[in-house]
Amino acid sequence: MPNHYSPHKLYFKEAHALADLQGIVQDLEWVICAANLYIKLEHSASVEKEAIYFAALAKYGRCFKTGVRRRISEEIVERASADQREAHDYLINMRDKFIAHSVNEHEENYTVAYIKNAATQTPEFSSVQIQHHRTVYMGDRAMESFSQICTFWKDQVVGLITEEKKVVERIAKQIPVSKIISDASGDMMLASPKAGDEAKRRKQRIL
């Protein structure tokens, strides 16, 4: 009879930390794919480009911002070159000040008065209008750079996964197989948890 291998969830903190790293890799891979799609779009596809740009910045920011999930550490960030660090700081700044907030230097709404013949001796008031201006997306070269820096971070995290997976395997081998199976079986029997409840449990386990 052939062997059958089945997955069983691990619950110790090192296992959760390892899983978080894979989540970071998934986000970075998504941004890389999105950047390639962005570059293929026509310049006139402004709505599509803006949507991709916003989503890419949000995904990128999740890899570095504090929260329940683990983030890319400052130790890894310090491995970047000066140019890479400058690009990274720009992207995080765009995410923080442009995507996360509606009042910023990249988006401006203001009211103007239209004056008829303003440069003449007899200017006249015409009307009041609202002006809107914002930087909606990157150029293709900038998006290529976005993809490249994501590839750099991904390579760093994949290397870390390789190292930490060895640690998790050593710990897992010390746990009785029957306990691994029973713990995972008990989890599957639970009702589907709410996202917030699961986040709280994960935070408690990791801390």
Concise structural overview:
With about 210 residues, the protein is mainly alpha-helical. Helices cover about 60% and strands about 10% of the residues. It is built from seven helices and two strands; from the N terminus they run H-H-H-H-E-E-H-H-H.
SSE order and pairing:
Layout: H1 13-40, H2 46-62, H3 74-77, H4 82-99, E1 107-116, E2 124-134, H5 140-173, H6 177-189, H7 195-206
Antiparallel strand pairs: 1-2
Which key features would you list for this structure?
207 residues; mainly alpha; disordered C terminus; 10% strand; two-stranded antiparallel sheet; single chain
Written description of the protein model:
- The protein is mainly alpha-helical and 207 residues long.
- The chain has 2 domains: 13-105 and 137-170, no CATH class; 175-207, no CATH class.
- It contains 7 helices and 2 strands.
- A two-stranded antiparallel sheet has the order 1-2.
- The longest helix is centred in the last third of the chain and has 34 residues, at 140-173.
- The two termini are 43 Å apart.
- Mean pLDDT is 84; it is low at 188-193 and 203-207.
